[in-house]
Design brief:
mainly alpha; Herpes Virus-1; Leucine-rich Repeat Variant; about 0% strand; disordered C terminus
């Protein structure tokens, strides 16, 4: 049952193990000392409820990261997911390593006991006490301590999250937001850094950051914080804006919030920040809000020059960035002002056609939607030929024909069919196929 998993794990471990140089190993690691998952010498043996002993790192990955609730060897559903340290086996392994030191086996160190719920509760209580005293340095020290603990293992992370860390941290963030001096600003950035680790695992924490005061502080960090502070602020925003329409509206009302997000696209920090910023913007420009509010938001983004930057990014970017950038562009093009910006950019149509069938199904659907919007806009301004001619010159007609054959959503098929009807009228005037766009496709057209 776990053979495939175990083989993959063993292969990864084989690359990490440093074998003794110029030593002919004449001993074999006893089967009892080997982890059934990795087949490697156990460093921190723990026993599950079924009585089978594993190395802690491997079995916790099996349980917490891979989401299994069964014993890897027996397949029996576990009555408890908490592994128990096997001190007897660990001491025997240590003794065996000492006896075989001449063969290159170093004594494994005694592992530190995993973080307990009581330890987490004590740290959180200290944070509350320090917060009530206004002691920013004390809070900072404790927040850093929790961050270090979370890096230990997935089990420790789950322990920290399940003991109410999110609520304590969001309350502390709001408390220090009322006095944003330099000392407090640093601890606010540190708390945000920790919340980026907690939020994906604890959705309830999002509600704690929904206050107007907290959102104002996040925007301030987005504008004036350090590079890491701005990065963490947008990672938190991505989580907040993805599920709560109310927070979308509250954030949009904060002065300078839209410009701060657009700046992260125009002056990128790293790929993670760019992806998070694009996703946050996407939620803002495609909300189920009133037409007037949506138009106001999009207009503000347009005034920052976001359209031009997105099209420039699309010329050469990763799959993730491409999908999100096309999604944001589709949102911007949902109003006439956004269509005008895209329509007047010479790169728009060629770039959109290039992305058809080249990146992913998501990118293709957004590209078709954008081309369809632009085509309708060109008709409305009395220039219905321009988009068609540009698209035909870079092989757009053949790509849409192929798209109808390989399959797509109903909406995308309808838009593609509309475009083909319009473009077909111009095929006699100009047409050019870029064969390089089709060389990797498995189906002929």
């Amino acid at each position: 049952m776990i053979s495939a998993y175990r083989n993959r794990r063993a292969a990864r471990n084989a690359k990490k193990i440093k074998k003794p140089v110029d030593v002919e190993v004449a001993v074999t690691v006893p089967e009892l000392f080997r982890c059934p998952i990795s087949l490697e010498l156990m460093k921190d043996p723990v026993t599950l409820a079924t009585g089978i002993t594993y190395d802690r790192e491997n079995v916790e990955r099996w349980i917490y990261e891979d989401g299994n609730n069964t014993c890897p060897v027996t397949g029996v559903v576990l009555t408890s997911l908490e592994p128990v340290p096997n001190h007897m086996i660990r001491r025997r392994i240590q003794d065996w390593c000492v006896e075989n030191k001449s063969y290159g086996f170093d004594r494994i160190p005694t592992p530190r006991a995993p973080t307990s719920s009581s330890q987490v509760s004590q740290i959180l209580s200290k944070i509350v006490a320090m917060r009530n005293k206004g002691n920013a340095d004390g809070v900072m020290e404790l927040v850093v301590k929790i961050k270090d603990l979370m890096k230990e293992s997935e089990r420790t992370k789950r322990c920290i999250v399940s003991n109410g860390s999110g609520q304590v941290l969001t309350e502390t963030f709001e408390a220090f937001s009322y006095n944003e001096n330099q000392e407090n600003f640093s601890v606010l950035e540190e708390i945000l850094s920790l919340l980026t680790l907690i939020l994906p695992s604890d959705p309830e924490t999002k509600s704690g950051l929904g206050s107007n005061r907290s959102l104002h502080t996040i925007v301030k960090i987005l504008k004036l914080g350090s590079l890491s502070g701005r990065r963490n602020a947008v990672l938190v925003l991505k989580e907040l804006l993805s599920t709560d329409q109310t927070k979308l509206e509250q954030f949009a009302e904060v002065e300078g919030s839209i410009e701060a997000l657009a700046k992260l696209i125009k002056n990128p920090i790293d790929a993670t920040t760019t992806n998070a910023s694009l996703l946050a913007i996407y939620h803002l420009v495609t909300p189920s809000t009133s037409v007037n509010q949506k138009e106001t938001l999009i207009t503000t983004f347009l005034e920052t020059g976001l359209t031009e930057k997105l099209i420039e990014m699309l010329v050469d970017c990763t799959k993730g960035v491409c999908e999100k950038a096309l999604g944001v562009l589709d949102g911007l093009c949902s109003i006439d002002k956004g269509l005008e910006k895209a329509y007047t950019n010479a790169l728009t149509v060629p770039v959109l056609v290039k992305k058809l069938l080249r990146v992913s199904d998501v990118a293709t659907e957004f590209s078709v939607s954008n081309l369809w919007r632009l085509s309708k806009y060109a008709k409305s301004v009395g220039d219905e030929e321009s988009v068609a001619i540009e698209a035909l010159q870079v092989g757009g007609f053949q790509k849409l024909l192929l798209l109808l054959q390989v399959g797509s959503s109903l909406k995308t098929k309808e838009q593609a069919s509309d475009l083909l009807k319009d473009w077909n009228l111009q095929r006699g005037r100009v047409e050019c196929i870029e064969s390089m766009d089709f060389k990797n496709l498995k189906r002929p057209f």
